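Objective 1.3, modelling of assemblies. Example input:
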Amino acid sequence: MNFNSRDAKQWLRMGPRAMFGQFMMNIAKKNKKLIVLSADLGRSSGLARFKIEFPQQYISIGISEQNLVGVAAGLADEGFKVFVTSFAPFLSMRASEQIRMNLGYMKQNVNLVALGSGLSMGFLGNSHFGLEDIAIMRTIPNLNITCPADCAELGKVLDDYASNDRGPSYIRLTGIPGSKNVYDKNYAYKFGKNITITKGKDILVLSYGSILGQIKQSVKDLKKMNIAVELVNVVSLKPIDEKVISKLKKYSKIITIEEHTSVGGLGSVIAEKILKNKIKTKLFSISLPDKFGPTGTYDYLLRNHGLDSDSITKEIIKLFKKK
Amino acid sequence: MLEKINKIRKLSHKIRKTILDISYNSGEPSHIGGALSMAEILAVIYSNFNIKVSKPLDRFILSKGHGFLALLSVLYCKNFVKKKEAFEFQKNGSEFIAHPIMNKSLGVETSNGSLGQGLSFGVGLAISYKKKKNNNSIIVVVGDGECYEGSVWEAAITATENNLNNLFIVVDCNGHQNDGAINKMMTFEEMKKKWLGFGWNVNGCDGHNISALIKAFKKSSKTKPTAIIAKTVKGKGVSFMENNNDWHHGRLTKNIYFESIKSIKKN
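Predicted structure (tokens):
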């Protein structure tokens, strides 16, 4: 899937969930084997039009996420290209064991689309937030975890899963309509590979998901202060791009930034790599705390947790100066 | 018809003996009681439906995963699995263990063992068959104790919503679960009411009576999925194991094994 800067601008206004529905329609036009299922969150997945235009390719499952994953696995076993949607905690926790058995153990080729992960559900609160989903999904063998940075990357990720046999996946959607774009013009996406967004010698920042839009702004501001940040989009949390190891060796300070708890996310992934490869560096983490926080608008929550671009800039300066 | 019934009955006897042989050979405790209660159910399914290895026409999903000893036995009796392989049951490193591990080339459709998951998978298959205009059937076996799992009922709703008349569930009502006799709210009679309440076409029958089971499968519906509520006896065929929950998961010593074989020969 290719795009131009006009598409990127338009998609930003639509947001990841509406765009998910759009991208699925584009795929459905070409691929009659595509089936999309949702546990009563079709509208919330931007699938309202999809349902009408492709009724044979949409299955509405009631509010039953465990059942949703099992039914999807049966369809995948029969050769359909299956995507399912629900909110991040309902998939990763309510249906966790179904995912372990059907996708992990049996390797049924189901793509789980986790809507509204991170803090993006705003006033719906902690019951709906995806705070711990990566930590949980990461422990299940054979499951890919992919976290697109913006709508354009989401389109590329969906296209890649739809047209290749990548095995089961957990696709994590964060951000809301208006969340800053990371990619303004077309670029090459490759499954399982990191993408370097900015080059810099002073400090290495690793992140994923829509928070990259905030960090990109910070990197610009830091450049004005003569701090050169190497910013890497770790779009694939699993499998992890092993090339990251050579990069970890090059920097004396590394920061992971994520819209996920400090437990078991990218910070943990990188800490494991550093330990295993005996790399001498300093690792810092900017993430959500290991507790249930307040609720409010998405912008408020990002500020509250120091994940807006201004707070990130300040924190990077602090860590950069730290001896 | 009588000839057919006799043939299936013979198969069920062979399954029962194989359950004991394989279990004894393993030297380990295994789920004998819940395997013995399924012998006739599996004999009927594997005779009445067109189940083939690798490219099955009708599909069989064992949701009560701890019944794998019985499934392995029928796969052996139907020559899907060779003797040497079957007798690897519960040997170190074997893929034939207490619960099924998916192995399509040997006729094991799904990995199971965590209860309450097989019906959703079966619903997915049944929807697939409808989409492909494939007129074959999907058969799922669950235990009565397994029906405490909420996900069974989630799948039960999806099955009726999608008019899956190509889907059968057999509830092996052997009246026992791990910790003992099943509660009065989950008995054979209650189970029928529950599946009826969920909108299924329900046929209750004696789960050890071959012709009754055949009839129950025949009385399917044009619009609804069919639930066959099969009243069975846990440990059926071995007198001292019947309704004795010590044999939910037990080890056959040499003496007990020979006594068991003697007992099934009398029945």
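Chain A is about 40% helix and 20% strand.
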